[in-house]
Amino acid sequence: QVQLVESGGGLVQAGGSLRLSCVTSGGIFSSYAMGWFRQAPGQEREFVAAISRDGGTTNYEDSVKGRFTISRDNAKNTVYLQINSLKPEDTAVYYCARDLTTARLRVGNHLGSWGQGTQVTVSS
Question: What is the DSSP string of 13-68?
Answer without folding.
Answer: ETT--EEEEEEEESS-GGGSEEEEEEE-TTS--EEEEEE-TTS--EEE-GGGTTTE
